Amino acid sequence: MTDMTRFLLMDRIMTADIQTTVKDYILKEFLPGEDPGELTETTPLISGGILDSIATLKLVAFIEERYAITLEAHEADVEHLDTITAIADLILSKRKGTA
């Protein structure tokens, strides 16, 4: 296995772990009792009405605490937080120092 292959595999594992953690948090905090299968990595969270402004702030606080990162005000928006995939991408980029 090459270094690049190893790096890509680790990136996929980290992405999947982040997506699972964020999904579990959203289900527990904002969608209790809902079918977990209905919430996918591409389900619109903000534009779909799952997260309102208060819920979005709670999600930001959770992300910052769980992943030891700081989100800038302009990152707490529909562009960065509308799907679990977008959230995972943002977290990874912040942890890598590229956001």
Entry keywords:
mainly alpha, 99 residues, Non-ribosomal Peptide Synthetase Peptidyl Carrier Protein, Chain A
Concise account of the structure shown:
The protein has 99 residues and is an all-alpha fold. It is built from 4 helices and no strands.
Write up what this structure looks like.
This protein has 99 residues and is mainly α. Helices cover 61% and strands 0% of the residues. It has one domain: Orthogonal Bundle (Non-ribosomal Peptide Synthetase Peptidyl Carrier Protein, Chain A). It has four helices and no strands. The longest helix has 28 residues, at 3-30.
Write the H/E string, N to C.
Answer: HHHH
CATH class identity:
Mainly Alpha
Distance between the termini: 29 Å
Mean pLDDT: 91
Count of beta strands: 0
* Helix count from the secondary structure assignment: 4
- Name the CATH superfamily classification: ACP-like
Structurally, the number of domains stands at 1
The 3D shape can be described as: globular
- The helix-and-strand class reads mainly alpha
Low-confidence stretches: none
Query: Percent of residues in beta strands?
Result: under 5%
* Biggest β-sheet description: none
Ordered list of secondary-structure elements with their pairings:
Elements lengths: L2 H28 L22 H15 L10 H4 L2 H13 L3
Helix pairs in contact: 1-2, 1-4
